[in-house]
Design brief:
alpha+beta; 1 helix; 4 strands; single chain; binds zinc ion
């Protein structure tokens, strides 16, 4: 198995880490309720996908 000949310098490691930040998630407003959701996912707020109700939200019954 190939083994690195030299240890990477602090500078080289830091130069790599400078490009490994987690980006901002791609969010789009839901066409039904306007809440921001990830594309190609069911909206967590209203349960719609492509304007079709996929998951019905639980409704709290207060007494
Ligand atoms: Zn929605």
């Amino acid at each position: 198995m190939a083994v690195p000949k030299r240890r990477k310098s602090k500078s080289k490691s830091r130069m790599r880490w400078a490009h490994e930040a987690i980006g901002v998630p791609n969010l789009r407003p839901c066409p039904k309720c306007g809440a921001y959701t990830m594309p190609h996912r069911v909206c967590a707020e209203c349960g719609h996908y492509k304007n079709v109700l996929v998951i019905e939200k639980k409704v709290k019954i207060s007494d």
